[in-house]
Design a protein that fits this description.
The protein has about 150 residues and is an all-alpha fold. The chain contains three helices and no strands. The radius of gyration is 33 Å and the shape is rod-shaped.
Length: about 150
Amino acid sequence: MAKTQDMTAVLKDMMGAFPVDTSALDDAFKNTAALNEKLAGVALEAAEKSSEISSVWTKDTLSKLADMSKAKAEPADYAKALTDFASAQAEVAAENMAAFAEVAKKVQSETVELMMSASKEATEEATAAVKKATADATAAAKKTAK
């Protein structure tokens, strides 16, 4: 009667002949976590600056509304106060929108820099991993051929 081959031993021998190096996965995880930390820092800084701009804008608007809502002696003074308020708001809106645009521009440039850096690092790591895997596979193939 024919004896069946022990597949567990065969698989164990095969897996031993082609070792898997998990350090590349560990490095990829660490690099991804570091990139995410940097991107989160950029986003949080932008949110903080945007919040500051909004807060100052709101305080300024409320202050001007308080001035505008004060009782006036003449009816024409109400129209002038409203006109002055609207004019000031248009000017402040333009300044604040420019400030928001600067924040967005900074976020965009920092994000592009981070992504370019990460891409360069990933390419270098992938090249090194492929070279190492090729060398390991070649060595394993030579070992099994003997």
